[in-house]
């Protein structure tokens, strides 16, 4: 028996095994131990979840008042906080992230997301439209129906909440598919939903592989929308597959976000920002500041300090509250990150910190040293491809226009940051950056009230904020003849 036992699928308010009874292991990346077995769902299970979600949409959920829906969603947020220690521990166990990050940042942010959208539930208005002729024209904002949320392994519960909360607040029912590496907190969310009293079928949790279950979801004619966060190449495949049933989709994809440091910045703050930008979440962050663009005038001094600071960061037991750098989420991800280190060296990048696998004295776990490369040029692979690990590429620039050009020289456009004391320059650069989020003199700050999403191949649609509501509703125009 594993530490956390065997977990089932949540379909129509009931916990059940996958059809055929297959399971898959969940591994703790810090110890390499199997900590749970979860159901490995089949396309038949997806059919059952869709039928349950549709019945709930047409039945009790659709008939419930918006205010009552809001109350349930609020309670779900409350329950998450009541069990925050336990859920944060699960998040750390299956992902390897430091407990400080899950306990004090991400799980509270997920709870807050439910409470933010709970407040919107009864405030979604239509409008009256001033048309010509004796006609009354009004609009209704209606839910889409059955929404599937497919999420990755880096922020398992938080990224699920960014989708599930607005979907529920606008009156949809939900099928949540977590990443196969990190299903435990989605299952915990399902337990809380049952506990809080959501009608059966409103929230269904389907665990399984992307290739089988994810694909079955994307192709399913009974699903109205897929809200996806994950790799850009997976997102492109989802867009192609969703075309056959013309589903609504929103895609939050990868990034290669530029973090621009001008010589006139508060350099100590910029140094902290550069570190937080790439090493929070072990760099497994879609918005990680993985390209540090540094003003040539200060480059040598800045990179020396950055290397010294990076060398002081050591990986530790993710469950230890003092740990700031946890384990890479999986063996294959560690191998991928190390491969990029080799490529960077072979292309002429100069390694100034880290670069190797490490361990925390247990001889187990997928730990990696925080890594910084100097003298990276914009054409090198590590300046162009998303690594999704604690590896920073530093690139120099000569002036403002070159900084902007280099920042925008990417297929991605998720986030960017600029560090300067010059207010004019800061806003000018912010206006020119092709990114869905721009931070000025800070990095990696988020709030449920502030929209998040990509430009270019980082995807489309916006999560969090009032803007998310648009992506879970459709507008119906009603004409009334008054002649
Ligand atoms: P992934 O694309 O491999 O998997 C994401 C999810 O999609 C998982 O649940 C997976 O099982 C599922 N999936 C895989 N193949 C599928 C298919 N054919 N059909 C349907 N579903 C399928 O991504 P990942 O490795 O889990 O996550 C890392 C990626 O996520 C990175 O590229 C990162 O930048 C991105 N990300 C983006 C954001 C954002 O908001 N833009 C946030 C976090 C992560």
Q: Tell me, what's the shape?
A: globular
List low-confidence stretches: none
Number of helices: 16
Main sheet: strands, sense, barrel: 7 strands, mixed
DSSP helix fraction: 25-40%
- Helix/strand-derived class? alpha/beta
What's the mean pLDDT score? Answer: 98
What does this structure look like?
This protein is an alpha/beta fold. 39% of the residues lie in helices and 22% in strands. The chain has 16 helices and 25 strands. The strands form seven sheets. The protein has a seven-stranded mixed beta sheet with strand order 15-18-19-14-13-21-22, sandwiched between helices. It has a six-stranded mixed beta sheet with strand order 10-9-8-11-12-24, sandwiched between helices. α3 (66-82) crosses α7 (184-196), α4 (84-95) crosses α5 and α5 runs parallel beside α6 (156-169). It is globular and about 75 Å long. 54% of the residues are buried. It binds nicotinamide-adenine-dinucleotide (NAD). Nicotinamide-adenine-dinucleotide binds at residues 150-154, 159, 177, 179-180, 210-211, 214-215, 218, 229-231, 234, 237-238, 252-255, 286, 386, 388, 414, 454, 458-459.
